[in-house]
């Protein structure tokens, strides 16, 4: 069960990479059962058709796309999907680049390039071309970054936030929109109120006469038109009015004054027309004084007039470092691929990220977070906006145990969640099985009760002192890669 067959070569990079300076390690990701994405570490990306892997008679892998994409990168994630009859592969490329503008920080920033390559058919010729390129930038390497199976969105768990970097044309358009928005516009109308009525003043052009103005009152609505133009004011009033008593007049040929009689006398309106922000409320001195008096009980001239009371106010000087909320604490974000905006964000706080695992190849990778002493596994569901992350498994006390392993390097779990495992930098591998029923009777003497389930810890020591470079779990086995050897550990359910 732990014997490996002789390796068989399926692909060889076509170029000699030893001549390249500053190259990274090659990286690859299995996009689907038949597609592979590969980086040679020099900045070149390959899309490879592997055929049905696992078949001993499978042919060698075939390059379907390769292109130089600038600075070296590693592949963070990739997916293969078909949309509208067109096959596409989306891939996330991770780079750490120098940032000349960052003079106070590390001097580097992290970029995630979200690349979509689609199959193009022209005159019977089938080839793959880059269809879309998007770039996100942040200040920390993401713990977790994965593209949704449909290619429509992206999820990131990171300590520092990421945001999309726009093209120059998009930046110019955004700046123009921002300038337009930031320009201070004069209010369309001014309004004030008493306990009995509301008065509205609307500026009108000088050439407008009384016959050009049409004002329609109803118990809950108002509509003001000038000539045959679209409504100047229209909408639902905050509260009902006595529409038969409402009036309007023209003041000095410059403004239209409208008087509304409140049906509920004594009530204060926080707004005139629901959702309309084009007006400005004018408050008189008596109203200001009344509001100030109503808030007097919430203020004091003394910093802490009663320090011995049951619930004293918070004193920031007594807070410890662990009580402070970190501005850049780890967060889980979901980005929309069309709008390039965040649709969901969750601040993880003290829920430390532990590892990720592919439970179902048709779903996004799961991620594991520490919750108190336990480790909880979460499955993203991008097609369920109201319930996007589902708790699917718990590893009891794993959060506490892994914190004690100072030399921990990798963590993983079985796709069926039957066990979790971690390895140190050298030699030792720890396996934590889920609680399982006992075949014999076991009593807890201190509590005087029968124990129904027991969780076991297994420790494996490799017969090599070489650094561990890779760690992967399947349902029954653990693969541990060192600089010289690939170890296969059988995790027997009977152990």
UniProtKB/TrEMBL annotation:
Membrane spanning residue stretches: none
Keyword Secreted carried by entry: no
GO cellular component, one term: nucleus
Tree of life domain: Eukaryota
Localization per Swiss-Prot or TrEMBL: Cytoplasm; Nucleus
Record bears the keyword Cytoplasm: yes
UniProt keywords, alphabetically: Cytoplasm, Nucleus
Record-linked SUPFAM superfamilies: HSP20-like chaperones (SSF49764)
All residue ranges annotated as the CS domain in the record: 184-273
Short name of any one Pfam family annotated for the protein: CS
Protein name: NudC domain-containing protein 1
């Amino acid at each position: 069960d732990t014997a490996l067959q002789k390796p068989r070569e399926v692909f060889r990079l076509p170029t000699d990479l030893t001549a390249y300076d500053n190259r990274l390690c090659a990286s690859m990701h299995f996009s689907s059962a038949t597609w592979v994405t590969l980086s040679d570490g020099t900045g070149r990306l390959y899309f490879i058709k592997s055929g049905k892997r696992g078949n001993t008679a499978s042919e060698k892998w075939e390059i379907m796309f390769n292109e130089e994409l600038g600075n070296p990168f590693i592949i963070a994630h990739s997916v293969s999907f078909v949309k509208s009859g067109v096959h596409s592969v989306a891939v996330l490329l991770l780079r750490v680049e120098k940032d000349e503008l960052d003079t106070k920080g590390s001097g580097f920033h992290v970029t995630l390039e979200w690349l979509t390559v689609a199959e193009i058919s022209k005159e019977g010729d089938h080839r793959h071309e880059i269809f879309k390129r998007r770039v996100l930038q942040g200040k920390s390497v993401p713990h977790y970054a994965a593209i949704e199976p449909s290619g429509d969105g992206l999820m990131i768990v990171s300590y520092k936030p990421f945001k999309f970097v726009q093209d120059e044309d998009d930046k110019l358009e955004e700046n123009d929109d921002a300038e337009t928005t930031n320009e201070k516009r004069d209010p369309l109308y001014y309004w004030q109120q008493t306990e009995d009525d509301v008065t509205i003043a609307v500026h009108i052009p000088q050439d407008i006469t009384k016959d050009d103005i049409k004002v329609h009152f109803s118990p809950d609505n108002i509509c003001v038109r000038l000539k045959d133009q679209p409504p100047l004011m229209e909408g639902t009033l905050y509260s009902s009015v006595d529409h038969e008593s409402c009036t309007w007049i023209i003041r000095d040929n410059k403004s239209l004054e409208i008087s509304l009689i409140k049906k509920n006398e004594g009530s204060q309106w926080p707004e005139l027309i629901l959702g309309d922000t084009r007006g400005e409320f004018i408050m008189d001195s008596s109203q200001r004084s009344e509001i100030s008096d109503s808030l007097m009980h919430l203020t004091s001239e003394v910093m802490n007039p009663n320090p011995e009371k049951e619930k004293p106010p918070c004193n920031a000087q007594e807070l410890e470092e662990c009580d402070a909320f970190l501005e850049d604490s780890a967060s889980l974000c979901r980005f929309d691929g069309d709008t390039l905006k965040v649709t969901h964000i969750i601040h993880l706080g003290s829920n430390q990220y532990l590892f990720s695992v592919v439970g179902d190849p048709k779903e996004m990778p799961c991620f594991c977070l520490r919750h108190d002493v336990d480790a909880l596994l979460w499955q993203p569901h991008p097609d369920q906006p109201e319930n996007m992350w589902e708790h699917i498994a718990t590893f009891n006390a794993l959060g506490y145990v892994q914190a004690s392993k100072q030399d921990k390097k990798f963590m993983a779990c079985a796709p069926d969640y039957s066990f979790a495992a971690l390895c140190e930098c050298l030699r030792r591998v720890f396996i934590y099985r889920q609680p399982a029923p006992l075949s014999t009777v076991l009593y807890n003497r201190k509590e005087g009760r029968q124990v129904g389930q027991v969780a076991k810890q297994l420790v494996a020591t490799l017969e090599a002192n070489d650094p561990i470079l890779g760690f992967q779990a399947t349902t029954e086995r653990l693969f541990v890669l060192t600089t010289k050897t690939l170890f296969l550990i059988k995790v027997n359910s009977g152990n």
